[in-house]
Amino acid sequence: GEDVEQSLFLSVREGDSSVINCTYTDSSSTYLYWYKQEPGAGLQLLTYIFSNMDMKQDQRLTVLLNKKDKHLSLRIADTQTGDSAIYFCAESFTGGGNKLTFGTGTQLKVEL
Amino acid sequence: DVKVTQSSRYLVKRTGEKVFLECVQDMDHENMFWYRQDPGLGLRLIYFSYDVKMKEKGDIPEGYSVSREKKERFSLILESASTNQTSMYLCANGDRALGLGSYTFGSGTRLTVV
Q1: pLDDT digit string (tens) for B51-110?
Q2: Which whole-number Å values give the CA distances from B20 to A42, B65, B67, B104, B112, in the listed order?
Q3: Do B37 and A102 contact (CB within 8 A), yes or no?
């Protein structure tokens, strides 16, 4: 079955860049996603990338996909205290309908 | 904006009780999902539904059932609550027109079984 892994914690200083990493095992992934969960809230979609793309940029967010190594990363430039949250990567795959498989989540802490 | 509303933010139930978690969406979206979230395990899919009266098992359906009598409402049922079902439960919906994986999540229900 599918398996999506992330490191559990990341701590950065305000103003630095954050890089959150994710590895997945299903080679038939069609889309890969990044979701953000703020304290006490549900998840919200940040961005996504189609599996035939290598990179996607959206303002302070850069998504990199290495399909050969099944590695996905999210870079947040100029990290702010409001970026403190749990970040989940997720994948959907051919034949999986509209279901998502989520990673374990990375808790990002931004320090002053 | 699509809204997904979960009826309770916090619930405390006793072992053996039957528990209903309700989820309502205010748009005409076909797909609805129930996940549970546990530290270090991420989100795990319990059940999902692509249409009224339709349901499919997810990855961890044991001890749960669901009901979808109307398009806007998707209920998760714990037939006989147990302490290992203490968790955060998240409902989500998705519109096929928005593309795969564009889910809208509710705020979650934190269930404690004592």
Answers
A1: 898 999 999 999 999 999 999 999 999 999 999 999 999 999 887 655 566 788 999 999
A2: 19, 10, 10, 21, 13
A3: no
Which DSSP category does A27 fall into? Answer: T
Residues of B in contact with A101 (CB under 8 A): 45
Partner B contacted by A47 (CB < 8 A)? no
Angle at A109 between CA A111 and CA A60, to 5 degrees: 90
Q: Is A46 on the interface with B (CB under 8 A)?
A: no
Q: How far apart are CA B68 and CA B54, in angstroms?
A: 7
Q: Confirm or reject contact between B74 and chain A (CB < 8 A).
A: no
Structure tokens at A60: 């302070």
* Residues of chain B numbered 33-72 and touching chain A (CB < 8 Å): 33, 35, 40-45, 48, 50, 58-59
CA–CA dist A92, A33 (Å, integer)? 8
Which of A45, A87, A98, A104 is most worth mutating to test chain B (most B CB atoms within 10 A of its CB)?
Answer: A98
Amino acid code (one letter) for B44: R
List Cβ neighbours of B41 (8 Å cut-off, separation of 6 or more): A104
Q: Is the pLDDT of residue A109 over 70?
A: yes
Express each pLDDT in B32-44 by its tens digit: 999 999 988 899 9
Lookup: tokens for B106: 């509710």
Q: How far apart are CA A106 and CA A49, in angstroms?
A: 19
Residue B98 backbone dihedrals phi, psi, to 5 degrees:
-80, -10
